[in-house]
Amino acid sequence: MSDKVIITAALTGGRISQEQTPYIPIKPREIITAAVEAWEAGAAVVHIHARDNTGVQTGDINVYREIYENIKAKTNLVVCLTTSGSDLSEEERLGPIELQPEMVSLDAGTMNFGDSIFPNSPDFLAKLARKCLDYNVKPEIEVFDIGMIYNTIRLLEGGLLEPPLHFQFVLGVKGGLTAEAKWIVHMLEIIPKESTWSVIGVGRGQLAMNMVGLAMGGHVRTGLEDNIYYARGELAKSNAQLVKRVVRLAKEFGRPVASPDEAREMLSLRGRY
């Protein structure tokens, strides 16, 4: 159980449009601004998807480079670039690793994701893990169901992952585990003991899982990628607004908020920063 809490802000994702909420950052400059605001609000980590000029998720390495380098120039945030994207090629998904961020996401298995299929074959996961080793980038293991933990353990036993691992429990996606505390309890029984962990609550599960993560000694993720509402019927006006709420809750739970440099130490990061 950790005393300090690492807050991650997931700024945009690849699916939410400005028709759904005008507050979602789409263009690179909007994502960069959202990252700075989240950092000022108390986030230690930002999770980044890149979008093209039409708002569609892109794997263009030059767009990722623009976002990444500007965030690093303006903040000391830990930047976690995504490797997800069901509409992207494997080459596009693996591309952000070449920028050598401190972290990238590793979605640990194929699943039904809402009304679509999110493919992550064993071969792709092995390629992703190997490339992370080659570029000295730490994978954030994103787990949507129990089987993905066992996929991760096989990668670890095969020498493709290095401990300590960092897990992000993603709860509330249709097709994955529901946003309930019982799943966290079960997953903590399975993951390697030296691992760190964080929790995401998707949609209306966000606030509840923020509170459960704080109460259970884990770390938490918030942001417009996971939930566009601040309260029932009330759109969140920024990622920073959601981060500030977690900071207030952390204070109530007696959990000091970790700085980016403290997060680096807690997550055993060894990247180029």
Please explain how this structure is put together:
This protein has 273 residues and is an alpha/beta fold. The protein has a single domain (7-266), classed as TIM Barrel, CATH 3.20.20.70. It is 36% helix and 18% strand. The protein contains nine helices and twelve strands. The protein has helices at residues 28-41, 61-74, 90-94, 122-135, 146-157, 181-188, 206-215, 239-252, 260-266; strands spanning 7-10, 45-48, 78-81, 103-107, 111-113, 116-118, 138-143, 166-171, 196-201, 219-222, 229-231, 234-235. The protein has an eight-stranded parallel barrel with strand order 1-2-3-4-7-8-9-10, surrounded by seven helices. A two-stranded antiparallel ribbon has the order 5-6. β1, α1 and β2 form a beta-alpha-beta unit. α1 (28-41) packs parallel to α2 (61-74) and α1 packs parallel to α8. The model has no long low-confidence stretch (mean pLDDT 96).
Layout of secondary structure:
Elements (H helix, E strand, L loop, with lengths): L6 E4 L17 H14 L3 E4 L12 H14 L3 E4 L8 H5 L8 E5 L3 E3 L2 E3 L3 H14 L2 E6 L2 H12 L8 E6 L9 H8 L7 E6 L4 H10 L3 E4 L6 E3 L2 E2 L3 H14 L7 H7 L7
Parallel strand pairs: 1-2, 1-10, 2-3, 3-4, 4-7, 7-8, 8-9, 9-10
Antiparallel strand pairs: 5-6, 11-12
Helix pairs in contact: 1-2, 1-8
Q: What is the number of domains?
A: 1
Structural class: alpha/beta
The CATH superfamily turns out to be Aldolase class I
In this structure, how is the largest beta sheet organized?
8 strands, parallel, barrel
What is the alpha-carbon Rg in Å? 17 Å
**Which fold name is given in CATH as the topology?**
TIM Barrel
Order of helices and strands: EHEHEHEEEHEHEHEHEEEHH
Give the strand order, joined by hyphens, for the main sheet: 1-2-3-4-7-8-9-10
Under the CATH scheme, which class? Alpha Beta
How would you sum up the global shape? globular
Percent helix range: 25-40%
Low-confidence stretches: none
